[in-house]
Description:
Helices cover about 40% and strands about 20% of the residues. By secondary structure, the chain is α/β, with parallel strands linked by helices. The protein has two domains: about 5-140, 3-Layer(aba) Sandwich (Rossmann fold), CATH 3.40.50.620; about 155-265, 3-Layer(aba) Sandwich (Rossmann fold). β9 (about 240-245), α8 (about 250-255) and β10 form a beta-alpha-beta unit.
Amino acid sequence: MKYQILLPTDFSDNAWNATVYALKLLAEEECTFYLLHCKNEKISAMANMSKKYNDVMRESNLKELTKLKETVEAANTNPNHSFEIILSAGNLGESVEAYIRKYHINLIVMGTTGATGAKGMLFGSNTVGIIGRIKNCPILAIPDKSEFVPPKQIAFPTDYNRFYSPTEMGAIKNIAELFNSKINVVHINTESKLTEIQTYNVNAVKEYMQDLDHSFHWMPHYAKKATEINDFVDEHNIDMLAMVSYQHSLYESLTREPVIKKIGSQLKVPFLIIPESKD
Length: 279
């Protein structure tokens, strides 16, 4: 499988950390990495002055992108890795959507906070916006200052209220197969008994996991779900958290606040968010 990876960057330390993580995660794979910076140009009433300002900023951003590409190429030893730079005048959400289609992107890797990252928040506004907007590509969000650790243990929380498609499960499987990872399927017991639909979906997940190293975990409901998931991550030495995002999902219930903080600043492992498949 050849990977087409989109790496949005605002030239912050967090964005660089996400880039390094992506290079190490896919160190043995054939990849094209697209380094994307969005300027979001706005032409004001003072059109001439605004144009001059945008021209200067565009030239400055292009120099930074080029320098970033040169830095990455110098640090990277995989001959099967190639790098492209994209300087977009649009906003981040529109640009990411456009380049997913244009370059057949199959994974976005980005930092959780930007150059002005606020303390105590897991995701900055750009990351929140991308997660809410992108419906056709998995997003791997890398926490600030987290160092690469091979994701040998992946946690997959689920409420079993929905059947997962092969495309959705495939996003987790692709990562797991890179490192022979174990997938820990986690359910928080908010109900005394599973419904028929939940039972069916448990069996469907078991069938899908049969060729993968995996385990099933049933947690008592003793606190907020975000707290319980964080506890599970800590207690089981989890290296990556993965969730499918769909309407009324466990993920959605965790991320209903204006700025995502329920899973919280406590989370120190990469977070794979898989959009609902239309299969």
